[in-house]
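Q: Structure for this?
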Amino acid sequence: MLRDQFPILNTTVYGHPLVYLDNAATTQKPQVVIDAINHYYTTLNSNIHRGVHHLAAEATELHEETRRKVQELIHARHNHEIVFTRGTTEAINLVASSFGRQFIKEGDEVIVSGMEHHSNIVPWQLAGARLRPIPFNDEGVLDLEAFAALFNERTRLVAVAHVSNSLGTINPVEQLTKIAHSHNVPILIDGAQGIAHLTVDVQKIGCDFYCFSGHKMYAPMGIGVMYGREEILDVLPPYQGGGEMIKDVTFERTTYNELPFRFEAGTPSVGDTLGLAAAIDFMSAAGIEKIASHEEELLNYATQRLSEIDQLRIFGTAPHKAGVISFLIGNAHPYDVGTLLDKLGIAVRTGHHCAQPVMDRYGIPGTVRVSFALYNTLQEVDTLVNALHRIAPMLQ
Ligand SMILES: Cc1ncc(COP(=O)(O)O)c(C=O)c1O
């Protein structure tokens, strides 16, 4: 069983078996990923690309093999369109800094959605852009007509989440891309919550950038990806300066390396890259479609069972949703709900989920969020619902 491959899931918390429902924050790691990192540091540790010795050559080959695996995973045209970063946040900051320096002048506009994570808001503000948010309805569905009306001569980029981390909405990224391109505006997709739950085909979507974190798809923390279409990466200046991103350096002038190395200054996190490769193999073996349909079953079952609970309100009821449920019970503070669930071994997230504008939209301070991964079970949903029935009276 896939679940058996995650050693941490055997943990007990306050004497209860761990029920881990905080997967949108980070997923747990299967043994193959832990082994891959261990194997690297036990047998291969060396700095890559610039060494002639055996260890460096082997580590370089595996590091670059991971790039090819990512290319295949997201169906990119070229493997040099895959840039390694520390995660989604760094990937978006890379684009905001580099694209921003080239194309965004003070007062230019970037269209985001109203349901973005702060890491797809703040980098654009730092780049000097004025943000134009796409509104969404009470269910958590973006208003595409309003989106089309936001474009003007100062619009430089659209930056939208594939899946909302707070509402679970799966946004129509192909349609959004078509609309953006019909205005000759490039589009960045924040795939942090998409990559582990959906088949991602960047060519089919047609997007210009797609960013994600390894740690939300069973890989280690500290590794992520910025995919950029070759034609657009070619015209962007480097992000950070340092080793590996250069061709020639003198005190007068520096010339830069080719793609993707131009955007990868300094020593990369090779052990984590190899962990990412193991996670991709693990997900491919499990089958992304099977993962998605299992999570959909969990979502439907949990939605139905949670609605049995008195005064429970779900935020985010879009027809196309990933395995994320945000809710409140009566006037209970989400933090209190989360703390009581924790005492029963159930890990959920509480608060604004780094999406304060979403909370403002509903006029609430935060929510309790449960989010699923491939190893969660229907029994765990029952455990959650039973626990909520038990704690609900304590919250009144
Ligand atoms: C939609 C979304 N974007 C971006 C991020 C930031 O990811 P990271 O912290 O891994 O860089 C997250 C993390 O929760 C997210 O859910």
